[in-house]
Write a structure and sequence with these properties.
With 287 residues, the protein is of the alpha+beta class. The strands form 3 sheets. A 5-stranded mixed beta sheet has the order 1-2-3-4-5. A 5-stranded antiparallel beta sheet has the order 6-7-8-9-10, with helices on both faces. It has a 3-stranded antiparallel beta sheet with strand order 11-13-12. The chain is elongated, with a radius of gyration of 21 Å. The protein is built from 8 helices and 13 strands.
């Protein structure tokens, strides 16, 4: 057993990780996958994360309050006691493990930064700010970005959506003050138009922060994330035709009307293809 520190430049505190694997072959493969520098430690108590291929060890470590990553060969049944399960070989790397560890502590994972904004996963303490913005949106005739059922459904969303999909609706805060000014992100949607599903972008900026370019700044970065990191070939948007500001923004971003209507004909469905996103942003850039 050896300890290692996962390298992540954006993390001020790097949790120590303990390998507790029976299989030397699996350990070698995991070291290759994570590609991190190793360091030794003397005590199990120093480890915050344990990576193991033993169900017995996983249960013991979970009971000891450790974050457990279970390793198994492809096709095996998942075992109990693991907070995160990874198949070997897989494309899970140290950042994926760190993100899962942060979520287990209730810490929001940062998605991206722009010149003025930080886009990160929403967390419990964001609820009141997001609810106020959602109430403003409802009053202004816009689509809501928070579950209608309130706090419990909001908590269920942030605890499951990011882990399951790897994306979702995120909190937007200002770099200089940390103030929450919006909620933007990506959502999976399936209906009669897209029975197999599509990815939609959603965005909302607090009423007193509109007209300053924040929505465009956040959406351009999120679209780049969708095309580059998620490898989407197209992204959609549903917009109320009376919401001229949102239609204008969608046009600036390069979205085109599909000619289809959703939500009983109330909303326009627009689509942005990857190539259009590149040309709309900069004809010489590559997302």
């Amino acid at each position: 057993m050896v300890y290692w520190n996962m390298r992540n430049a954006d993390k001020s505190v790097r949790p120590k990780v303990l390998y507790a694997l029976k299989s030397g072959e699996q350990e070698a493969e995991i070291r290759r996958m994570t590609g991190t520098g190793l360091c030794t430690a003397d005590a199990l108590e120093d480890a915050e994360i344990v990576i193991t291929d033993s169900e017995e060890t996983a249960r013991k470590m979970e009971q000891a309050g450790k974050f457990v990553v279970g390793c198994q060969a492809a096709g095996e049944n998942f075992f109990d006691g693991a907070s995160l399960v990874m198949e070997v070989p897989s494309d899970i790397g140290p950042e994926d493990i760190l993100d899962a560890y942060d979520r287990s502590l209730g810490l929001p994972v940062e998605i991206l930064r722009t010149n003025r904004l930080i886009v990160r996963e929403s967390c419990q303490k964001d609820y009141e700010a997001i609810r106020r913005m959602s109430d403003e949106a409802h009053h202004d005739g816009m689509l809501s970005v928070i579950p209608e059922d309130g706090f419990d459904e909001y908590l269920a969303y942030i605890r499951t959506a990011y882990r399951f999909f790897g994306f979702g609706l995120w909190t937007v805060e200002k770099k200089d003050s940390g103030r929450i000014i919006g909620r933007c992100g990506l959502m999976p949607k399936a209906d009669e138009i897209s029975p197999e599903g599509r990815i939609e972008i959603g965005y909302l900026i607090a009423r007193d922060q509109r007209g300053r370019g924040y929505a465009e700044e956040a959406c351009r970065a999120i679209l780049s994330f969708a095309f580059r990191d998620l490898e989407c070939t197209e992204v959609f948007a549903r917009i109320d035709p009376s919401n001229i500001a949102s239609l204008t923004l969608a046009e600036k971003l390069g979205f085109l009307d599909t000619g289809k209507r959703t939500d009983e004909g109330k909303l326009i469905l627009l689509r942005l293809k990857r190539r259009s996103a590149v040309s709309a942003r900069n004809p010489h850039s590559h997302i």
